[in-house]
Amino acid sequence: MKNGILYSFRRCPYAIRVRWALLICKIKVELREIDLKNKPLDFLNKSITKTVPILIINNNEIIEESLDIILWAISVSENEKLVNKYIPENKKEMIFEIINENDNKFKYHLDRFKYSTRFNSIDKEYHFLEASKLLEKWNKLLTNNRYLFGDEDTIADWCIWPFVRQFKIACESQKKIKFFQPTMQKWLEYFENHKNFKDLMYKYSLWEPSSKTNYFPFN
Protein backbone atom coordinates (compact mmCIF):
# COMPACT_ATOMS: atom_id res chain seq x y z
CA MET A 1 0.00 0.00 0.00
CA LYS A 2 1.54 3.32 -1.09
CA ASN A 3 0.42 6.60 0.38
CA GLY A 4 1.92 10.04 0.48
CA ILE A 5 5.24 11.77 1.02
CA LEU A 6 6.93 11.72 4.42
CA TYR A 7 9.50 14.36 5.36
CA SER A 8 11.64 12.76 8.03
CA PHE A 9 14.86 12.97 10.01
CA ARG A 10 16.35 9.60 10.86
CA ARG A 11 17.18 10.19 14.55
CA CYS A 12 14.16 12.31 15.52
CA PRO A 13 12.03 10.30 18.00
CA TYR A 14 8.83 11.81 16.59
CA ALA A 15 9.84 10.65 13.12
CA ILE A 16 10.91 7.26 14.44
CA ARG A 17 7.51 6.58 15.95
CA VAL A 18 5.78 7.56 12.73
CA ARG A 19 7.99 5.27 10.67
CA TRP A 20 7.33 2.49 13.17
CA ALA A 21 3.58 2.94 12.74
CA LEU A 22 3.92 2.89 8.94
CA LEU A 23 5.86 -0.37 9.16
CA ILE A 24 3.30 -2.00 11.44
CA CYS A 25 0.43 -0.78 9.27
CA LYS A 26 2.27 -1.87 6.10
CA ILE A 27 2.03 1.53 4.44
CA LYS A 28 4.69 2.53 1.95
CA VAL A 29 5.48 6.21 1.46
CA GLU A 30 7.93 8.31 -0.45
CA LEU A 31 10.54 9.34 2.12
CA ARG A 32 12.41 12.62 2.01
CA GLU A 33 15.23 12.74 4.54
CA ILE A 34 16.09 16.33 5.46
CA ASP A 35 18.87 18.11 7.31
CA LEU A 36 17.33 19.97 10.26
CA LYS A 37 20.15 22.52 10.12
CA ASN A 38 19.58 23.19 6.45
CA LYS A 39 15.90 22.59 5.76
CA PRO A 40 14.99 22.59 2.07
CA LEU A 41 12.73 25.33 0.80
CA ASP A 42 10.20 22.81 -0.44
CA PHE A 43 9.77 21.53 3.12
CA LEU A 44 9.60 25.00 4.65
CA ASN A 45 6.90 26.03 2.19
CA LYS A 46 4.76 23.03 3.08
CA SER A 47 5.18 22.88 6.86
CA ILE A 48 3.56 25.26 9.32
CA THR A 49 5.58 23.98 12.28
CA LYS A 50 8.84 23.69 10.30
CA THR A 51 9.57 20.46 12.15
CA VAL A 52 9.54 16.82 11.12
CA PRO A 53 7.76 14.63 10.53
CA ILE A 54 5.10 15.86 8.15
CA LEU A 55 3.09 13.69 5.79
CA ILE A 56 1.54 14.91 2.55
CA ILE A 57 -1.43 12.89 1.33
CA ASN A 58 -3.99 13.33 -1.44
CA ASN A 59 -1.59 15.70 -3.26
CA ASN A 60 -1.85 18.70 -0.93
CA GLU A 61 -3.33 17.59 2.42
CA ILE A 62 -0.64 17.92 5.09
CA ILE A 63 -0.59 16.11 8.44
CA GLU A 64 1.83 17.91 10.76
CA GLU A 65 1.68 16.11 14.12
CA SER A 66 3.33 12.72 14.54
CA LEU A 67 0.46 11.33 16.60
CA ASP A 68 -2.01 12.41 13.92
CA ILE A 69 0.08 10.62 11.29
CA ILE A 70 0.03 7.47 13.42
CA LEU A 71 -3.74 7.66 13.80
CA TRP A 72 -4.08 8.24 10.06
CA ALA A 73 -1.89 5.20 9.32
CA ILE A 74 -4.05 2.96 11.48
CA SER A 75 -7.26 4.34 9.99
CA VAL A 76 -6.23 3.71 6.36
CA SER A 77 -4.55 0.37 6.95
CA GLU A 78 -5.90 -2.54 4.96
CA ASN A 79 -6.26 -4.39 8.26
CA GLU A 80 -9.50 -3.03 9.69
CA LYS A 81 -8.82 -4.59 13.09
CA LEU A 82 -5.79 -2.41 13.88
CA VAL A 83 -7.78 0.35 15.62
CA ASN A 84 -9.20 -2.04 18.20
CA LYS A 85 -5.88 -3.84 18.52
CA TYR A 86 -3.63 -0.83 19.10
CA ILE A 87 -6.15 1.64 20.57
CA PRO A 88 -8.50 -0.58 22.60
CA GLU A 89 -11.56 1.36 23.68
CA ASN A 90 -11.28 0.36 27.36
CA LYS A 91 -7.72 1.74 27.53
CA LYS A 92 -8.08 4.68 25.16
CA GLU A 93 -8.09 7.42 27.82
CA MET A 94 -5.02 6.01 29.60
CA ILE A 95 -3.19 5.61 26.29
CA PHE A 96 -3.60 9.23 25.29
CA GLU A 97 -2.82 10.45 28.81
CA ILE A 98 0.55 8.70 28.87
CA ILE A 99 1.40 9.87 25.35
CA ASN A 100 0.65 13.43 26.46
CA GLU A 101 2.82 12.92 29.55
CA ASN A 102 5.68 11.76 27.34
CA ASP A 103 5.33 14.51 24.75
CA ASN A 104 5.07 17.32 27.27
CA LYS A 105 6.74 16.35 30.56
CA PHE A 106 9.27 13.66 29.67
CA LYS A 107 10.39 15.35 26.45
CA TYR A 108 10.84 18.63 28.33
CA HIS A 109 13.21 17.10 30.89
CA LEU A 110 14.91 14.85 28.34
CA ASP A 111 15.89 17.80 26.16
CA ARG A 112 17.28 19.75 29.11
CA PHE A 113 19.28 16.77 30.26
CA LYS A 114 20.56 15.62 26.86
CA TYR A 115 21.14 19.10 25.44
CA SER A 116 22.03 20.84 28.70
CA THR A 117 24.49 23.22 27.02
CA ARG A 118 21.60 24.70 25.02
CA PHE A 119 19.68 25.45 28.19
CA ASN A 120 21.06 25.85 31.72
CA SER A 121 23.73 23.22 32.29
CA ILE A 122 23.54 23.81 36.04
CA ASP A 123 20.10 22.18 36.03
CA LYS A 124 21.15 19.10 34.07
CA GLU A 125 21.03 16.75 37.06
CA TYR A 126 17.62 18.08 38.09
CA HIS A 127 16.19 17.28 34.67
CA PHE A 128 17.81 13.84 34.72
CA LEU A 129 16.10 13.10 38.04
CA GLU A 130 12.72 14.42 36.87
CA ALA A 131 12.89 12.31 33.71
CA SER A 132 13.88 9.33 35.85
CA LYS A 133 10.79 9.78 38.03
CA LEU A 134 8.57 9.44 34.98
CA LEU A 135 10.49 6.38 33.85
CA GLU A 136 9.99 4.84 37.28
CA LYS A 137 6.27 5.55 37.04
CA TRP A 138 6.09 3.88 33.63
CA ASN A 139 8.24 1.02 34.83
CA LYS A 140 5.54 0.15 37.38
CA LEU A 141 3.16 -0.41 34.49
CA LEU A 142 5.61 -2.94 33.09
CA THR A 143 6.09 -4.83 36.33
CA ASN A 144 3.30 -7.29 35.60
CA ASN A 145 2.86 -6.58 31.90
CA ARG A 146 4.87 -7.16 28.77
CA TYR A 147 3.84 -3.73 27.49
CA LEU A 148 2.59 -0.53 29.12
CA PHE A 149 -1.05 -1.59 29.16
CA GLY A 150 -1.01 -5.36 29.07
CA ASP A 151 0.27 -8.25 27.02
CA GLU A 152 -0.29 -6.47 23.70
CA ASP A 153 1.44 -3.30 22.57
CA THR A 154 -0.58 -0.17 21.88
CA ILE A 155 0.21 3.16 20.27
CA ALA A 156 1.37 4.25 23.73
CA ASP A 157 4.34 1.88 23.41
CA TRP A 158 4.97 3.06 19.84
CA CYS A 159 4.96 6.71 20.86
CA ILE A 160 7.12 6.43 23.95
CA TRP A 161 9.91 3.96 23.24
CA PRO A 162 11.86 6.24 20.82
CA PHE A 163 12.13 8.86 23.58
CA VAL A 164 13.14 6.29 26.19
CA ARG A 165 15.79 5.10 23.74
CA GLN A 166 17.02 8.68 23.36
CA PHE A 167 17.25 8.94 27.15
CA LYS A 168 19.31 5.75 27.24
CA ILE A 169 21.69 7.09 24.57
CA ALA A 170 22.09 10.34 26.53
CA CYS A 171 22.82 8.45 29.75
CA GLU A 172 25.40 6.23 28.07
CA SER A 173 27.18 9.20 26.50
CA GLN A 174 27.34 10.90 29.90
CA LYS A 175 28.52 7.76 31.71
CA LYS A 176 25.36 7.33 33.76
CA ILE A 177 24.80 3.85 35.14
CA LYS A 178 21.70 1.96 36.29
CA PHE A 179 19.37 4.48 34.67
CA PHE A 180 16.73 1.83 33.88
CA GLN A 181 14.99 -0.87 35.82
CA PRO A 182 15.44 -4.33 34.21
CA THR A 183 11.78 -4.45 33.18
CA MET A 184 12.04 -1.20 31.24
CA GLN A 185 15.32 -2.29 29.69
CA LYS A 186 13.66 -5.50 28.50
CA TRP A 187 10.70 -3.53 27.10
CA LEU A 188 12.99 -1.21 25.17
CA GLU A 189 15.09 -4.10 23.89
CA TYR A 190 11.98 -5.61 22.32
CA PHE A 191 11.80 -2.66 19.93
CA GLU A 192 15.56 -2.31 19.43
CA ASN A 193 15.88 -6.01 18.59
CA HIS A 194 12.71 -6.18 16.50
CA LYS A 195 12.96 -7.49 12.95
CA ASN A 196 11.66 -4.09 11.74
CA PHE A 197 14.39 -2.07 13.45
CA LYS A 198 16.85 -2.30 10.56
CA ASP A 199 14.24 -0.98 8.11
CA LEU A 200 13.11 1.61 10.65
CA MET A 201 16.58 3.11 10.98
CA TYR A 202 17.77 2.68 7.40
CA LYS A 203 20.08 5.56 6.51
CA TYR A 204 18.77 7.50 3.53
CA SER A 205 20.71 10.14 1.65
CA LEU A 206 19.50 13.71 2.12
CA TRP A 207 16.66 14.69 -0.17
CA GLU A 208 16.96 17.41 -2.79
CA PRO A 209 14.42 18.35 -5.48
CA SER A 210 16.64 16.64 -8.05
CA SER A 211 17.03 13.46 -5.97
CA LYS A 212 15.74 10.13 -7.14
CA THR A 213 12.60 8.95 -5.36
CA ASN A 214 13.22 6.93 -2.20
CA TYR A 215 10.60 4.85 -0.48
CA PHE A 216 10.07 3.79 3.09
CA PRO A 217 10.43 1.02 3.85
CA PHE A 218 13.44 0.82 1.55
CA ASN A 219 12.76 -2.75 0.36
How would you portray this structure in words?
- The protein is an alpha+beta fold.
- It contains nine helices and five strands.
- It has a five-stranded mixed sheet with strand order 4-3-1-2-5.
- Helix 1 links the parallel strand 1 and strand 2.
- The longest helix is centred in the middle third of the chain and has 23 residues, at 92-114.
Predict the CATH topology of the largest domain: Glutathione S-transferase Yfyf (Class Pi), Chain A, domain 2
CATH class of the largest domain: Mainly Alpha
Poorly predicted regions: none
Cα-to-Cα separation, first versus last residue: 13 Å
Arithmetic mean of pLDDT: 93
Please state the second-level CATH architecture of the largest domain.
Up-down Bundle
The run of helices and strands is EHEHEEHHHHHHHE
- Sum up the overall morphology in one term: globular
Our estimate of the beta-strand percent is 5-15%
**Largest sheet descriptor:** 5 strands, mixed
Main sheet: which strands, in order across? 4-3-1-2-5
Helicity range of the residues? 40-55%
Structural class: alpha+beta
Find the count of extended strands (DSSP E, 2+ residues): 5
Radius of gyration: 18 Å
Please give the count of helices.
9
Number of domains: 2
Question: Helices and strands in order, then pairings?
Answer:
Elements: E1 2-8, H1 13-24, E2 28-33, H2 41-46, E3 54-57, E4 61-63, H3 66-76, H4 82-86, H5 92-114, H6 124-142, H7 155-173, H8 182-192, H9 197-200, E5 215-216
Parallel strand pairs: 1-2
Antiparallel strand pairs: 1-3, 2-5, 3-4
